[in-house]
């Protein structure tokens, strides 16, 4: 039985509702998902199926967008400087030859400390300060600054420690005070107990036979760079798909993967970043958005073993996922299928969440058709 589509769209965005309905009609009967978008600070799409508008989901690495937005704000304020060495803020990071790395290179996934030789416990993965302490002592897996690779489970802890040293406060607190609370965002780095009844447990999907064949053809050893980056080099390897189902992860909100949000929260955060919402002005100036959206690492990602690109922390979404978007689009997808971004050229802020972990991870395939539809409607408003 096809899921009923709920919610509303603004005039001119009727095709987005039709696209969402067509996608849902072809999905499993137990599909749950949400789609939200803003254009220049005005909500234009607010749709959901199989759930309700207030449901919250683990958004995996879409969390990193919130962390990088905090850093962008602090750079804009002058509290952080991109070309200072990380050790200016965090002296212990100099261990094992990491002393020359700048904050700019740290943000661009060029540090080389994607994990540790022996991996992390679940309690450590939930606690950014414990992760940072372990990573400070770790010898990098490539010479810092010479190459890049996705710091999947630790990027938030690395930049979070710089934020903590510079401000005296955890990144999660700065996010709450500067971003989440003023804009009323339904996107939490540390889900309060009152929000737990709204959380929807992530349900992993099994790969199809074709996808399983791809996996079997590209095996990774337990101590490969990819395994280290995804904490598979431990006696109890991390089950990424189920990570948000751990109460400790939700409660502490580690800034790499621990965020809990609705699509409204994801889209709203990026609307706040580039356009503002209601009476609140834009968080970032155009020059700040442009600098953080510039290509900084482009080419062969040593962890993903494929072509990737990053700006300052943010994925360069137009290159990585959706080539129809404007140059300088900032955003970040999540392994469970979530996607969120801001396109300064069209004024579009987009957020999508789903319950089932979409194999093989990253922005779920349907985001391409959904984002394309929203973007076309946004351009038609200009």
UniProtKB/TrEMBL annotation:
Keyword Lyase on entry: no
Domain Beta-lactamase-related stretches: 34-359
Gene Ontology MF term list: hydrolase activity
A Pfam family annotated for this UniProt entry: Beta-lactamase
Keywords linked to the UniProt accession: Hydrolase
Domain of life, source organism: Bacteria
Name of the protein in question: Serine hydrolase domain-containing protein
Organism the protein comes from: Streptomyces indiaensis
């Amino acid at each position: 039985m096809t899921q009923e589509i709920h919610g509303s769209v603004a005039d001119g965005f009727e095709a987005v509702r039709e696209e969402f309905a067509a996608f849902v009609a072809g999905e499993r009967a137990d599909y749950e998902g949400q789609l939200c978008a803003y254009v220049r600070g005005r909500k234009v799409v607010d749709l959901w199926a199989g759930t309700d508008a207030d449901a919250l989901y683990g958004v995996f690495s879409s969390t990193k967008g919130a962390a990088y937005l905090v850093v962008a704000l602090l750079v804009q304020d002058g509290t952080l400087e991109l070309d200072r060495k990380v050790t200016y803020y965090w002296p212990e990071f100099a261990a094992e030859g990491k002393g020359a790395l700048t904050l700019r290179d740290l943000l661009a996934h060029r540090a080389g400390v994607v994990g540790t030789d022996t991996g992390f416990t679940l309690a450590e993965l939930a606690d950014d300060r414990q992760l940072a302490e372990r990573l400070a002592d770790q010898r990098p897996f490539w010479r810092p600054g010479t190459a890049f690779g996705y710091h999947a489970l630790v990027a938030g802890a690395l930049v979070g420690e710089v934020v903590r040293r510079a401000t005296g406060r955890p990144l999660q607190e700065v996010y709450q005070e500067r971003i989440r609370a003023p804009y009323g965002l339904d996107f939490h780095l540390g889900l309060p107990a009152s929000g737990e009844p709204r959380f929807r447990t992530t349900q992993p999907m099994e790969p199809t036979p074709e996808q399983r064949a791809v996996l079997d053809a590209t095996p990774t050893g337990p101590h490969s760079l990819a395994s280290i980056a995804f904490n598979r080099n431990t006696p109890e390897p991390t089950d990424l798909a189920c990570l948000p189902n751990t109460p400790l992860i939700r409660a502490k909100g580690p800034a790499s993967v621990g965020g809990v949000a609705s699509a409204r929260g994801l889209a709203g955060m990026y609307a706040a970043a580039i356009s503002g919402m209601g009476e609140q002005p834009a968080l970032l100036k155009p020059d700040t958005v442009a600098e953080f959206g510039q290509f900084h690492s482009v080419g062969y990602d040593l962890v993903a073993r494929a072509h990737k690109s990053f700006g300052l922390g943010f994925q360069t979404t137009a290159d990585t996922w959706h080539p129809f978007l404007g140059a300088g689009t900032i955003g970040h997808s999540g392994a469970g299928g979530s996607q969120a971004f801001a396109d300064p050229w069209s004024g579009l802020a987009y957020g999508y969440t789903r319950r089932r972990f979409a194999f093989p991870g990253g922005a779920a395939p349907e985001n391409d058709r959904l984002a394309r539809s929203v973007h076309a409607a946004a351009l038609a408003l200009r």
